[in-house]
Amino acid sequence: xxxxxxxxxxxxxxxxxxxxxxxxxxxxxxxxxxxxxxxxxxxxxxxxxxxxxxxxxxxxxxxxxxxxxxxxxxxxxxxxxxxxxxxxxxxxxxxxxxxxxxxxxxxxxxxxxxxxxxxxxxxxxxxxxxxxxxxxxxxxxxxxxxxxxxxxxxxxxxxxxxxxxxxxxxxxxxxxxxxxxxxxxxxxxxxxxxxxxxxxxxxxxxxxxxxxxxxxxxxxxxxxxxxxxxxxxxxxxxxxxxxxxxxxxxxxxxxxxxxxxxxxxxxxxxxxxxxxxxxxxxxxxxxxxxxxxxxxxxxxxxxxxxxxxxxxxxxxxxxxxxxxxxxxxxxxxxxxxxxxxxxxxxxxxxxxxxxxxxxxxxxxxxxxxxxxxxxxxxxxxxxxxxxxxxxxxxxxxxxxxxxxxxxxxxxxxxxxxxxxxxxxxxxxxxxxxxxxxxxxxxxxxxxxxxxxx
Length: 453
Known about the structure:
By secondary structure, the chain is of the alpha+beta class. Helix content is 19%, strand content 21%. Strands 7, 8, 9, 11, 13, 14 and 17 form a seven-stranded antiparallel β-sheet that branches. Strands 10, 12, 15, 16, 18, 19 and 20 form a seven-stranded mixed β-sheet that branches. The protein has a five-stranded mixed β-sheet with strand order 2-1-4-5-6, with helices on one face. The longest helix is centred in the N-terminal third of the chain and has 25 residues, at 50-74. The protein is elongated and about 130 Å long. It starts with 16 loop residues before the first helix and ends in a 14-residue tail after the last strand. Mean pLDDT is 75; it is low at 82-166 and 169-173.
């Protein structure tokens, strides 16, 4: 439809120029150089507090760095526990010590050139033992083994490490026992343990620990004693026939009597436990063994001396390659293994015939006594000595060796001095239980010229 009046014009709406003038009067940018119309919609770091956040991060980072530095500078690792003596159990196959051996570790022998110290936890101890050899840096890492030790000197043997073994006070590889010690600062007798049941390569050849083989073990012990007597006490001959335990011990005396733990007579298993290896396990089973101690001695005074004592099953002593003393447990049949030296006045008389009977009464080696040949010894002169004892039958074992100087025992009932190279320290006396027919006091036969072993 067309408009009725096409020439009619509609009036224009009134113009509002006031608003346009307002915007035209607004500045293009504000004092900050921003468009005032857009600044509230533009993303701004400052609008989120960015400056304060950066400052906070810097402060926290500085605190963390300071805390780390403080911890590193002040915290120190705890030093390893010092080597300590721990009494060993000793005893038989079912004893406390035998069970411990399965779990005890034993470090390697110590370096003898440097020093370390061992102390004792004994309530009766009054003496700190002499400085012990330190381990080298490579051996120091063994201290955590036990040692036993202990680790013992992981002592220990040292220090330290492990429980004691046998009839003594143990501390890992470095330990103290009636059979000897794994450390020494002075010339001593070197102890070696032989297995009479096995050949030198470790194969069971001659006998076993079975009770039915008791007779065979006694026979092999006879042969071992005879080898020493017939070959000038050449210990190497034994090593050519029998298995030799790798572990060696050092001793200044042979007085093996009681177990320090049980206070009972030492059992045959104590010897193999004392010569345990680095893993804490005995080198072989008992019985059927022989321990040989060899070295050099020097008499403190010129005079006539003779050995006295007893062995279970048997003990023999050679001086300068000649038999001067021989004793054995009654009824064990060891008399025929050794020829009595010409001119010897061993007691009891006719010992080869009565097989030890008449040497005394009672169930311990303390109650039996043999006396050896008188020997003329010169002060300052060195003599080679070899002492061997062993156990073939089984059960209990032990050996006691004393010394007598002619003319010094006015009282026939007075105790005999224990034969020794050096003074017996109180710590060791607690292990040995020297009593009855024997005493600690007496001459020392150490050869000062002998090099350290």
